[in-house]
Specification:
Blueprint (H helix, E strand, L loop, with lengths): L1 H5 L9 E3 L6 E3 L7 E2 L7 H7 L5 E6 L4 H16 L3 E7 L4 H12 L5 E4 L4 H7 L1 H6 L2 E5 L14 E5 L1 H15 L4 E8 L4 H17 L3 E9 L5 H11 L5 E4 L2 H13 L6 E5 L3 H8 L4 E7 L1 H16 L7 E4 L1 E4 L4 H9 L5 H7 L1
Parallel strand pairs: 3-14, 4-5, 4-6, 6-7, 7-8, 8-14, 9-10, 9-11, 11-12, 12-13
Antiparallel strand pairs: 1-2, 13-15
Helix pairs in contact: 3-12, 7-8, 9-10, 11-14
């Protein structure tokens, strides 16, 4: 799922975290305070006002994955409540030119609202121009086309609460270590807004909130395939590590392999996003102590709700964030459903019994 978020680089340098340790929060492209997605709700009056209008919606995604499937499911369920027909659902395969073609094709069906993750800020700005001319309401996931203004060009940006994802990872590792110990910090060594902010939130929380825990080793990683190699080197230099934070689940699997190769059953791992290999280790009582994920289904629901409010001419928040959740052995089945709106892999469910 992480690759879905890696395309969200258009906000790098514009979305940011408001500093302040435990009081920090994710804020919007112009410093907007985040509105929790739970506050974006359609009332009975809203639903009554929009039903029978014959409104149509298009879902124009960047790729197809468990993440986008969950976002789509949330959006479809909310639009169904409002009597809005989905006339197009597309997958651009991470190709900005293909996404532009998808937009042009979808506009032929005359949607009244479009939900999309723009792949490229420049290409997308031009590609969505006709939609603006047509009066189509736009709601964006994580990215923003260059030069677009809230209230004029788009109804809202909806994204993860990135600070909370990193903070919850720090809290989970601290809990596993009883608030004391030495940890390693494996961060994403590339300019990607989503991973950079989540990583920094973990580090900030450890440094500000847990004085008994010291980050004694730091290692950047750009290629997940090198995770085992880099973790092995870290463990040679620091064989007494009590815990390791890993930037997302794929490289965390490599770190887990390094621990297994050295016979290390002590060092705890915490990472972000859901994946079967690390979840399986977690439920079996291995090194992985917790996984922190976003609520992808909720992202879609909130996007659709914002779209409906825009159709009704209501004021909409510029920047909306969906909550993070910590998944452990105890709540893995519920956590998977809360995040992705589907069951956890059968292997995970069986091992968790």
């Amino acid at each position: 799922m992480l690759i879905d978020r890696l395309v969200a680089t258009a906000l790098a340098g514009s979305l940011m975290l408001m500093a302040g340790g435990a009081g920090a929060q994710t804020v919007g492209p112009s410093g907007e305070t985040a509105t929790p997605s739970a506050e974006v709700r359609l009332s009975d009056a809203d639903l009554a006002a929009v039903k029978e209008k014959g409104y149509k919606a298009a879902l124009l995604w960047h790729t197809s994955s468990d993440f986008t499937n969950a976002v789509t499911s949330g959006a479809k369920d909310e639009f169904a409540r409002a009597g809005i027909q989905i006339v197009a659902t597309t997958d651009a395969g991470f190709d900005a030119a293909r996404q532009r073609s998808d937009i042009e094709t979808a506009l032929a069906a005359k949607p009244n609202v479009i939900l999309s993750l723009p792949l490229d800020p420049v290409t997308s700005a031009e590609a969505f121009r006709q939609a603006l001319t047509d009066g189509t309401k736009l709601v964006f996931l994580s990215n923003l086309p260059k030069g677009y203004k809230h209230g004029t060009d788009y109804a809202a940006i909806v994204t993860d609460d990135l600070f909370q994802m990193g903070k919850q990872a720090a809290d989970a590792l601290a809990k596993a270590l009883d608030g004391k110990g030495k940890v390693g910090y494996i961060f994403h060594d590339a300019s990607y807004y989503v991973t950079n902010q989540r990583d920094q939130a973990f580090k900030t929380t450890i440094e500000k909130d847990y004085p008994g825990i010291k980050i004694v080793a730091e290692q950047g990683i750009s290629d997940p395939a090198r995770a085992e190699e880099l973790a092995s080197a870290m463990l040679v230099q620091h064989p007494d590590l009590d815990g390791i934070y890993v930037t997302w689940a794929e490289p965390a699997d490599g770190v887990l392999s390094a621990l297994r190769a050295s016979g290390n059953t002590k060092t705890k791992i915490v990472t972000l996003d859901l994946a079967e290999p690390v979840a399986l280790d977690m439920v079996k009582g291995g090194n992985v102590t917790a996984l922190v994920a976003d609520k992808a289904y909720e992202l879609g629901r909130a996007m659709a709700a914002v779209g409906v409010k825009a159709l009704l001419g209501q004021e909409t928040p510029a920047f909306v964030v969906a909550p993070a959740l910590t998944v452990t052995k105890q709540n893995v089945a519920q956590g998977w459903n809360d995040s992705l709106n589907r069951d956890a892999p059968q292997s995970v469910l069986d091992a968790a019994k």
